């Protein structure tokens, strides 16, 4: 071994190394390691390059860990001059001792760019509203100042503006390297490294990653000859050149559905056709894969360009040491290329093989001591993504040929791939079998997340999307309380944690559907469209934590990331099984703890005690159907009854626009009121019969109609109830359920009690009707009052009894009419006309304790019987008889003239003769009439018969006179010239019958007619806007 040291010593100790082919510089010091062989690959994309070096050293005990991660510089001597060296700069990622013998050792170094360190960090991270440039910059920045790692990169983009901000880009369980590689390939950005050497510097040089999207980014390295290789040749050249053309798809079509714009966004690209066969690649790119059609077209064009790279790739071999990927060169002296443009190519990949020129004697001695150096390298970078599988197989065969070749053929040889300069280069995203080369991680199944907001209990947008934060996000408020190693806060526990996420619901229609939005702190279940991590959809909410055994709420109030402990309100406990189903809301302010007011729909499926309850804590308002029980939340309280209960501590109203039935009758149809209809029919027949009897006995009122208005009202009610409606809509195409049911023709209210009807109040009770009020009873009608009973009538009162024999068992067997005043006076008066008392038999006027006075102070008093009469008139008494007049008394006395006067009761008259009045007025100031153009226009106020109640010209103040009527009726105001169409506006007076001509006319009016206006609320005021429209509308 002394001989080996003697031979190797002068070599390692020589001060000059300028004539070496390979020169290696490491932080261990000058010539501690001497390069022996090089086996390396440089490529566009992938990780850029990897170099496998074997090196010799006289120190067999080097610390293998000392060099890991350290920068090294390998210089390759070129043909230009002895000083022109091509640098390879990188970091040692593997260092191994291959063998040693005596004082001589062989080591192998694997050198990679700084980019390979991105393979060491597996991360999940959310990028929002960032372009691809901003995302890459953010990831690369995490590796700055990491030991002796000095990342360097630069962008060479033709138009950076085309790279729009991406709303959401998620790195999910990917290494930083795989994520960046995938992202760049999606955007059509390729990359390569540029090297610089500084043997005296701390980092020994640098290697810069160049990220580009156009062919002009390739550096021009000059021409190269296509020439033989020989020891006599002073210049490098290319010896083998294999041009190949392969069939590739020439037409590509993609499409993506965008749920926001409801748009299927197609994108297509087409290249030059070759031959008569046209092949097309058609696929769906996934949901909202691009923000607009322009971006989609760019993606499609880039994808097609990536496919075309494989159809035009050229592979060759040579000894040109300056050849590198990302460079442009011109091939000269080749018979196939006559034009310089056709002979210009871009280098895509180079595989370098080299042995250092240590000298034959030294190499023999090294081989004898350590064996021959193996050129077979460890795994090199992934083959160029732009090459087809055929190219990769061919390349592998040549690589084996180089590995097994004779070193005497030369100290350097390379194998390379090139592309005509006219063909755009794009990273390929799929291989020859259609599989993605850089697939996005797929999410299998669902995940859970926590709903986050910006402090409010609910954070949503117009389209009911929410924000969530996943457990795998790292940051200040992460679920696992882990910070991100890069220092960024990617889990803020706020609305910044994620982009908007849609929420699935049972229904989602145009202005209809379900609304169940998760709130802050809730745990939700998230699915991913087509397994795409960037396309999440919330599909449900989850209970979590541990609930109390027999009480509401959770044992755990909350957790990290703003998560709230959510226990179900209804559960197996409080003495019963889990019999409750339904849903319960919570006031927003109390969403986090669930102790506030709520609304709920609760279904109780307890056997034999089924219950449906809809309620709110607002005014304790509930509607309960079925078995009525008390209790709150999960507690089933005391019994409350059976059937239905509607209760509230506030006001209540029941409104039905087409009619309302309150009944205890049994019925199969909604508005079936058979008992009420029969009762009304009997009452109507009884009323007509008694009215006819009264007329026959001259007991009716003067000018009384042949058919009483009360009878008309009863008949109208009967007709209204008897109307039916069809249960099917014509032309809807849906069968089943046809038929007719009661469907009233007017919005009346009917109350019917099968076993009775009781209306009672300890306070006042008011009955008012605008027209007729009919009170009827088949047997007795009893009206009692503890105080006074007052009946005031503006017209006349008719009291008539038929005098029929009462039913058996009645305690009072009298018939007729009895007026009794147990206390006080009885007064019967006719203030404006005659008063008659007549009977078929006797009429008795008696006073049991005082006098009976009959007086006619201003006229005469006449008593007649069978022709005899007694007449008192003036101061005279006239007595006459067709027969004898007898005076019988025990004593008869005739004296002088005397007189006696009686005071007649006062019979005052009232001027009241009208009940209703109305005055049309504009709501506003007096100047409003002038502003609207009313002043000076003629007006008329008409009653229902068209008679003019008032008229004239509208004055400056706009005030119109008040009109009166002795009955409730519709009044019409006409403003303007005659000849206008009169459109009736219903006011607060008598409601029109559904059969009136006016309403049928309104039904035929064009709804676009500005005069067709009708108030629906029966108000007696017209809106100013309506009046303005009527006045200003063109009536021509």
UniProtKB/TrEMBL annotation:
- Classify the source by domain of life: Bacteria
Alphabetical list of InterPro entries matching this protein: Gp5/Vgr_OB, T6SS_Rhs_Vgr_dom, T6SS_RhsGE_Vgr_subset, T6SS_Vgr_RhsGE, Vgr_OB-fold_dom_sf, VgrG2_DUF2345
Query: Which ranges carry the Putative type VI secretion system Rhs element associated Vgr domain?
Result: 594-694
Where is the DUF2345 domain positioned along the sequence? 737-896
Q: Which Gene3D superfamilies match?
A: 2.30.110.50, 4.10.220.110, Baseplate protein-like domains, Gp5 N-terminal domain
Region: Disordered; residue ranges are: 986-1020
- Entry's Pfam families? DUF2345 (PF10106), Phage_base_V (PF04717), Phage_GPD (PF05954), T6SS_Vgr (PF13296)
* Acidic residues bias spans: 998-1007
Q: Which parts of the sequence belong to the Gp5/Type VI secretion system Vgr protein OB-fold domain?
A: 499-543
Q: Which family does it belong to?
A: Belongs to the VgrG protein family.
What is this protein's name?
A: Type VI secretion system tip protein VgrG
Organism expressing this protein natively: Cognatilysobacter bugurensis
